[in-house]
Amino acid sequence: LYHEMKKPKNFPHGPFFYPIIGNIVSVEKARRKAGMLTKGIMEIAKTIPGTTDLIGFKIGKDRVVFTLSTKAFMDMYTNQDLDGRPFGPFYETRTFNLRRGILFTDSEFWHAQHRFILRQLKDFGFTRKGMIEICENEAEFCLTDFRKMIESHGGKSATVTMPNILASYILNTLWQFMAGIRYDVDNEELRHLQNMLNDLFKSIDMKGALFSHFPFLQYIAPEASGYNSYVRFHNNLHAFTKKEVERHKKNFNPSDEPRDLIDAYLKVLYSGDESGNKIHESFSELQLLAVMLDMFVAGTETTDKVSNFMLLNIVRNPQIQQRAYDEIIKVVGKDRLPKLSDRPNLPYCEAIVFESLRAFTFYAMGIAHRAIADTKLCGFDIPKNTMLISIFNPLNRDPTVFKNPQTFDPENFLDANGKLSIPDKFFPFALGKHRCIGEVLGKSNLFLFCTTLIQNFYFDVPSGCEMPSDEPIEGCTPTVIDYQARITLRN
Ligand code: HEM
Q1: For labelling, which of 67, 197, 379, 395 has a CA lying 20 to 30 Å from the CA of 284?
Q2: Which SUPFAM superfamilies match (predicted)?
Q3: ipTM value of the model?
Q4: Range of the domain at 472
Q5: Which atom of ligand 1 is nearest the CA belonging to 366?
Q6: Taking the CA of residue 389 as centre, how many other CA atoms within 13 Å lie in the half-sphere pointing to its CB?
């Protein structure tokens, strides 16, 4: 134990490791003072010499290293020895006390599942018509609902409480891919699903995760450590998705074309892979439930949050909104809705999407990785089983890369001719083996909501309300503050 507590030789610089608790007290203090974990870590780094690229902590039982530079970020994601995912009750409690799913698995198990899901995303999707149509339809449903809402407010405009007004539609696109279902916004099941996901995200913040770093807390303080609610929220969600799997099984025919991810997965379970070969041992019904949980966790909160930063900045910047509107009217006109195929001709709107991704990732962190072997990173020794967490901030604020790194400005992603230009060191979806599998879906949704809404509505703050701040607050991921916005129908 003593050996475990000692700082390993040539470990990334960081504060002194205290016995048992490690650095949890100083990290927690810095987080409170800065208002956000990422900022807190960056503040601590400023006080410790030699932390240009990396900073190393001990949090409870875990050694945790954060990346602090673009170089460290890129080296971390491209070093295969760092492609593991952490062990621990925080990760396994979610999935039946087993190592299941796709977010927190690694090695051969992860590889087989990852390959399968990627193929499904391609097959349903963006290579065929299916997924594009789903996203375009959902943007239209959103438009119709907003029009109805304005109608019921007298026909000109409506005031809404932000953020999260697009969450149901974003969830619908993912749920259609997974289970072939879309819900109307006032549907009970949708509300239930959304409440479960909200609970889940609340339980994943640092406090809820306390039992992960101090596993004994789940036994001696199951309520206070967040363990009990964490288990409860996950069980609720699994019960919901299991019901859907059972429903699929009832009218499942292995010789039919799969309608969605559940069908495709059941097909493999019933009849092996497409050439009839025995399937990889990682496939199971429990694994299907774990995959669905992971798709919800990775796919909803992220896209919602980016859309919140997008709408906030549209409200805050009338001139950006106007320029996007002019572009849409010139290219698409008013007689039809924007399509995904309009994207190459709407560079300013696409730049708004990229700038929103930058705004979201300004204080975001990646998902924890684990060293699967002793290795080196930026000249430091990283012993096996160390956790690594990327910080996106250095990639997003570099003045040599962005014209205007400190403010929301779509020009950051346009060249001198107004063409889309994405810096080669901008990685909002990370890179390497664990890079996001939902990038195409996420970006398509964001583009369609952005263009469809701006074509039809004008967004601002209601008279008498203050302009909302764009300083994010802490959530499971960086969060936009609550504010009031007015949505006005364009003529
Ligand atoms: C615009 C919104 C999104 C952003 C900014 C985003 C960002 C990311 C990032 C940075 C990672 C890498 C994590 C790491 O290892 O550090 C990741 C992984 C992942 N994302 Fe996304 N994502 C988004 C949307 C989605 C969607 C819509 C889905 C589902 C279809 C999804 C599914 C996943 C999964 C399953 C992983 C884990 C991949 C693995 O470990 O192999 N994401 N995402």
Answers
A1: 197
A2: Cytochrome P450
A3: 0.99
A4: 69-489
A5: 16
A6: 22
324 is a domain residue: yes
Cα 34 from Cα 15, distance rounded (Å): 18
Average the pLDDT over 49-61 and give the result.
92
Beta bridge partners of 369: 388
Angle 92-94-99 from CA coordinates, rounded to 5°: 35
Backbone phi, psi, residue 381, to 5°: -90, 130
User: What is residue 491's predicted lDDT score, i.e. its pLDDT?
Assistant: 75
Question: Can you say whether the dihedral through the CA atoms of 400, 396, 433, 114 is positive or negative?
Answer: negative
Residue to substitute in 302, 304, 305, 449 for testing ligand 1 pocket (most ligand atoms within 8 angstroms of CB): 302
CB 123 within 8 A of CB 433: no
Q: From the CB of residue 253, how many other CB atoms can be counted at a distance below 10 Å?
A: 9
**Number of structural domains, the chain?**
1
Phi/psi at 137 (nearest 5 deg)?
-60, -40
Comparing 78-92, 136-150, 309-323, the range with the smallest average pLDDT is 78-92
Give ∠ CA 185-472-318 in degrees, rounded to 5: 75
- Amino acid at position 31, single letter: R
Q: How far is CA 442 from the centre of its chain?
A: 9
C-alpha 41 – ligand 1 centre gap (Å): 23
In Å, what is the CA distance from 212 to each residue of 69, 84, 308? 27, 17, 30
Instruction: Determine the length of the chain.
Output: 491
Region 338-355: what's the mean pLDDT?
Answer: 97
HEC-encoded secondary structure of 381-448: EECCCCEEECECHHHHCCCCCCCCCCCCCHHHHECCCCCECCCCCCCCCCCCCCCCCCHHHHHHHHHH
Q: Is the CB of 103 under 6 A from ligand 1?
A: yes
Q: Is the CB of 295 under 6 A from ligand 1?
A: yes
Q: Is the CB of 126 under 6 A from ligand 1?
A: no
Is residue 152 in some structural domain? yes
Report the alpha-carbon distance of residue 84 to residue 93 in Å, rounded.
18
Ligand 1 centroid, distance to 298 Cα (angstroms)? 5
Q: For residue 460, what is the DSSP state?
A: E
The answer to whether position 376 is within a domain reads yes
> Tokens 């160390």 belong to which residue?
386
User: Which CATH number does the domain housing residue 284 bear?
Assistant: 1.10.630.10
How far CA 202 is from CA of 209, 234, 299, 377, in Å, comes to 10, 12, 16, 33
Whether 27 is covered by a domain: the verdict is no
Atom of ligand 1 minimally distant from the CA of 369? 15
Q: Is 9 exposed, middle or buried (0-12, 13-18, 19+ CB in 10 A)?
A: exposed
Inform me whether the pLDDT recorded for 478 exceeds 90.
Answer: no
